[in-house]
Amino acid sequence: MNTKNKLYQGTLDMLIFRSIATEPLHGWGIGQWLERTSGGHFSVPQGSLYPALHRLERQGLLQSRWMQSPEGRKAKYYKLTRKGGKALEEAESRWTQYASAVSKVIRSGGAT
Amino acid sequence: MQAHSIKNTQHLTRTSYIRQLRQEIDQQVTLDQISKLQFVAEIDEHIRQLTRGLSEADGCLINPEARAVELMQAPAELAESLRLADQAAKRSSPLTHLGVSIKTWLAFLQMRSTMVLAIAATCFAILSAKSFFAFMPMAFQEFWIIPAITLSVFGFTLWLSRFFENPDSKVTLYSQIAWLVFLAIGANFATMLAEYVESLNYAWATPGGYAAFVIAIGLFISVTFSHLYFTDSRLRRQFFQVSLLLITSSFAFLALLVSQVVIAGSGLLFCLFVATAVLISQSTRIYLTRLPPGQATQKGAP
After folding, report:
1. Do B277 and B270 touch, CB atoms closer than 8 A?
2. Shortest CA distance from A63: residue in chain B
């Protein structure tokens, strides 16, 4: 899986949180969701995704469980913990403020 | 990085990729075995999904699995990423990291709790049979075949449940019988050893004999279970240690209880012995249906 567009530093965690905010997903499912939802803009390499999932779980932000996938195989499904939910809110709020600030700067057309 | 990865994975099959990844993780990452195995199992599942995705996207692809492996990051790099991620998590939340490690182990044990229960039930059955025979005349008390019978019943139920659970299994009859014989020999060896120690002329001969019996029987049961259920040598070793610890501590605890209730409760204990056989059969069946892939793999499973 190629990195079509590199993610900005720190955004992978937020995108992972968002992908599992409504329902638990396994690693492959998270990657597919990100690619589909971004219209093919992002494709997260497995070398970043799975270690990140491991880290977030170890930090208590995600919780995992082995469950049956639709293909009938057992897969490790992740869901947000309460701490993860708060982290998602904070990250989205920070990101929105940041993106809004960058947009204002771009729209300003430069110093006059 | 990607070109490098492709170069390192272009001649690997899924199996060899997973093997290499496991080796790299073992060398590079200081993490508990269960978490390592789970990580590898996740990557294995990822390759399977990727293979399926490639097949669907291009039905003419000759070897989609080889192509999927080519697209994977090199095992050494992936292991390095895991190491860094784990270190970062340890640094930022050391307590949570430890907590998750413990939870992973507990979940693993919970998944295998039926097997632990089966082991405990076997030990209990042996002890019950021994207690029951305390009522018998002295000549019968020397009839040490009882532990062997108990273990044989256990082995038989184990084999029976596995047979019904997985009739296509390639390890079925012969290996099960071999382990059954091993258990029976072990039970007899343990009792002979106990008798020998008890016959020695020193103050602690009786408890010494009991201890010898417990350790010997614990060793035999642990070896049997670890070889029956685990193909991964590290996991097998760890399970062996935990099992031995559980068995010896349960026996020690039960010895205390039995010394108080042996006369009143031995009849009841013998009835429980029969119930135990049924319990083992049921619990083993449940256990077998709950095995996840990539972890403690069942030998001969299709």
Report:
1. no
2. B100
Taking the C-alpha atoms of residue B192 and residue B215, their distance in angstroms, rounded to an integer, is 13
The count of other CB atoms within 10 Å of the CB of residue B67 is 16
Taking an 8 Å cut-off on Cβ atoms, the answer to whether A46 and B41 are in contact is: no
User: Which H or E element spans position A62?
Assistant: strand A62-68
Residue with tokens 């932000």: A61
Q: What is the distance between the alpha carbons of residues B273 and A94, in angstroms, rounded to a whole number?
A: 63
**Residues on chain B touching A57 (C-beta within 8 angstroms):** 100
Rounded mean pLDDT of B112-131?
58
User: Measured between CA atoms, how close is B170 to chain A, in angstroms?
Assistant: 21
Q: SS3 of A76, please?
A: strand
Integer Cα distance of B206 and B197 in angstroms: 8
ipTM entry: 0.85
Tens of pLDDT along B162-171? 443 443 344 4
Tokens of B101: 């490690």
Show which of residues 76-105 on chain B sit within 8 Å of chain A, judged by CB atoms: 77-78, 81-82, 84-86, 88-90, 92-93, 96-97, 99-100
pTM: 0.57
- The span from the CA of A72 to the CA of A80, in Å, is 23
